[in-house]
Design a protein that fits this description.
The chain is built from eight helices and 13 strands. With 285 residues, the protein is an alpha+beta fold. The chain has a five-stranded antiparallel sheet, sandwiched between helices. The protein has a two-stranded antiparallel ribbon with strand order 1-2. A hairpin with a 3-residue loop joins strand 3 and strand 4. Helix 1 crosses helix 2. The chain is globular, with a radius of gyration of 21 Å. The structure holds adenosine-5'-triphosphate and magnesium ion (MG).
Length: 285
């Protein structure tokens, strides 16, 4: 039997949790969808299903954070929240069980032998996706790649370091201007090489949208690594080429003297690029 003190603590935590979820429910009205199966009036919260709520609650009781205080970003695959703890905070990334881009996510999971036995259900898949983001973050941390430090992961939720200062998130590279674009380009392609050769991964969605930049320190961070694949994934070369092409496009537009794609690809991998892949990329863009 829990004693009264335990019960009180539970009650306080429960109330705290309910309040933060209520606040978020109000905030995430636009994330709600109409349930077409129903009479068209029922609203379904697409992020906080009951299981997600329970896990968030258990994370609070485990002491990972005190409450969820605000949405940093609401996207098609995941919502990202800020959760204060002590004098700082962490990021709570919740993958949507009903992600509309679910089908587009499949090619990044299939062919990754770490996830050979992923359940075919939607929930099972999204759960594995969250685990994949967590594992990829761990690999980056082990090899000193600038990225948020992973803290904990359970079901469709990943906890990680908050990248920001004074409660404000570092901007995406897309929304800011690097101090010295040429130097940043060089550091980023070195990082892609480290991700490939040391962490043995390909990010697979690398662009100015998934790089945060701290202007004051001239420091970048790679984020959003859920779709990252192992370097022996059947489509790893294609994904890597696309990542490098995105960097070349972004920095080329800033007037940086970029290294042409076949050359930078060979420098990263040690292998010459497959002409058919190069052609299909040029044809696409
Ligand atoms: N660790 C972090 N610290 C601070 N802000 C973060 C962190 N991780 C993500 N963010 C913020 O949340 C935004 C979305 O995160 P992320 O790119 O990981 O999700 P996403 O999968 O792209 O979501 P979607 O594609 O559905 O929009 C980022 O652009 C960034 O502003
Ligand atoms: Mg992103």
């Amino acid at each position: 039997m829990p004693d009264k003190e335990d019960f009180d603590t539970d009650e306080i935590l429960k109330r705290k949790y309910d309040r933060s979820v209520e606040r978020l429910d109000r905030k995430s009205d636009r994330d709600r969808i109409r349930d077409k199966e129903d009479d068209g009036l029922k609203l379904v919260d697409t992020v906080f299903d009951n299981k997600t709520r329970l896990i968030l609650f258990s994370m609070i009781t485990k002491g990972f954070f005190d409450e969820i205080s605000g949405a940093i970003s609401t996207g098609k695959e995941a919502n990202v929240y800020y959760a204060p703890i002590k004098d700082t905070g962490i990021v709570v990334k919740i993958f949507r069980i009903d992600a509309p881009s679910f089908r587009n996510m499949r090619p990044y999971m299939e062919g990754d032998h770490r996830f050979r036995s992923v359940k075919s259900s939607r929930a099972g898949f999204i759960e594995a996706w969250a685990k994949k983001e967590f594992k990829n973050l761990k690999r980056l941390e082990e090899h000193g790649i600038p990225a948020p430090k992973p803290i904990y992961s359970e079901r469709n939720i990943v906890l990680m370091e908050f990248l920001g200062a004074d409660d404000a998130v570092f901007p995406r590279l897309k929304d800011t201007k690097p101090v010295n674009p040429g130097n940043l380009y060089e550091r980023l392609i070195r990082t892609v090489k480290d991700i490939y050769r040391k962490a043995m991964l390909v990010h697979a969605d690398l662009s100015e949208f998934n790089i945060l930049y701290h202007e004051k320190e001239d420091q970048f961070y790679i984020i959003d690594v859920g779709q990252g694949v192992l370097w022996d994934h059947p489509r790893a070369q294609e994904f890597l080429l696309r990542d490098l092409n995105n960097l070349n496009r972004y920095f080329g537009n800033l007037g940086v003297n970029i290294i042409e794609l076949p050359k930078v690809y060979k420098w990263v991998t040690g292998d010459p690029v497959n002409d058919a892949l190069l052609y299909s990329l040029e044809f696409d863009s």
